[in-house]
């Protein structure tokens, strides 16, 4: 969680903003928000002020404020050694969110409870709880993907495996929109792209294969055509191509469309570089000494925007590094053992 200004005592607290009400002094809320950016809890003084405001509103409006969440789900969901956390973003993008809580005693006329403990936990749009990071590993030699579930303390289970042909690249995203993370792998052999739907408990369904170029090295997911469903992009340094597979939204994908890239592409990533809502594609080409930017578009055809000169480009990622609202690009320069930054100019 991040620091935030104290709420003003006069801040109105409507019932719509009161998400917890119960007869216990400890309440918990599950937040299913994508990339929760921040959450602010009030201190006891502020809580008193908010609660008073809320109780007044209740008395003068209607009954039923306490029935919002009369059932309280108990944890424990806290992380060992991390009961108080100040930043739960874990590097994910999202919207800034501020919560104001009023904890009231349902059995006592919804009287506000001071010094209440409110425990928060949350997950992202994929259903992944912060702090409980799982791992998916592509095991090329054995032809497996392995799912290692996090224990929340930095350790992981041994995990389960599923068969896929010579995986080199792997990406995790919810391809069928059921809230459970799915997995896609890129084959460094001739196995193309494999998609394995997740069951939400760490299990993966049998892989479904899609033909692609040989020697696929890296794979990324993004909604390149902006239709609300995730698509896949993979790069082949066997044929120097970018394969794009448009998603159908149910976990299946259309046939790959190949686009030429500079020599020896080794990494691909996705980000909406121009902010038009369509994910765009960054291809790092080792022998091309460049990062090529492909622009996603509604029709599903991606087009090359520009090619950045980037010596020894081995990977590239886009995010707003200087906080000006435009995405910048960081490139792993394997020739000079450094990270090169390309700062985007606004407008
Ligand atoms: Ca899914
Ligand atoms: Ca799409
Ligand atoms: Ca875009
Ligand atoms: Ca920027």
UniProtKB/TrEMBL annotation:
Gene3D superfamilies: Aromatic compound dioxygenase (2.60.130.10), Integrin alpha, N-terminal (2.130.10.130). One of its GO terms (molecular function) is oxidoreductase activity, acting on single donors with incorporation of molecular oxygen, incorporation of two atoms of oxygen. It comes from the Bacteria. Residues 1-39 form the signal peptide. Pfam families: FG-GAP_3. It comes from Actinacidiphila oryziradicis. Keywords: Signal. This is VCBS repeat-containing protein.
């Amino acid at each position: 969680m991040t620091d935030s200004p104290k709420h003003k005592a006069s801040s109105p607290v409507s019932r719509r903003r009161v998400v917890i009400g119960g007869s216990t002094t400890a309440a918990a809320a599950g937040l299913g928000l994508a990339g929760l950016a921040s959450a602010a809890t009030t201190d006891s003084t502020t809580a008193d002020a908010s609660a008073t405001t809320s109780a007044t509103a209740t008395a003068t409006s209607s009954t039923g404020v306490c029935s919002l969440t009369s059932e309280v789900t108990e944890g424990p969901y806290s992380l060992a050694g991390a009961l108080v956390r100040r930043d739960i973003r874990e590097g994910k993008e999202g919207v800034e969110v501020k919560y104001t809580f009023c904890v009231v005693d349902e059995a006592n006329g919804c009287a506000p409870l001071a010094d209440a403990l409110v425990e928060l936990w949350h997950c992202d749009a994929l259903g992944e709880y912060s702090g409980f990071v799982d791992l998916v590993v592509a095991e090329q030699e054995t032809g497996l993907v392995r799912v290692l579930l996090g224990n929340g303390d930095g350790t992981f289970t041994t995990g389960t495996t599923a068969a896929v042909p010579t995986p080199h690249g792997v990406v995790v995203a919810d391809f069928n929109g059921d809230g459970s993370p799915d997995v896609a792998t890129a084959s460094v052999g001739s196995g193309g792209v494999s998609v394995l739907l997740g069951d939400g408990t760490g299990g993966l369904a049998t892989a479904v294969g899609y033909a692609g170029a040989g020697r696929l090295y890296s794979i990324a997911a993004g909604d390149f055509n902006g239709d609300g469903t995730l698509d896949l992009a993979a790069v082949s340094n066997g044929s120097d191509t970018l394969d794009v597979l448009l998603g159908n939204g149910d976990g299946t994908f259309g046939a790959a469309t190949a686009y030429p890239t500079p020599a020896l592409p080794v990494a691909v990533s996705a980000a909406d570089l121009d902010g038009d809502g369509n994910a765009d594609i960054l291809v790092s080409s080792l022998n091309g000494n460049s990062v090529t930017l492909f622009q996603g578009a509604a029709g599903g055809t991606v087009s090359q925007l520009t090619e950045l000169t980037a010596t020894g480009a081995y990977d590239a990622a886009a995010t707003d590094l200087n906080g000006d609202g435009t995405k910048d690009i960081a490139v792993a320069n394997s020739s000079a053992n450094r990270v090169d930054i390309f700062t985007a100019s606004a407008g």
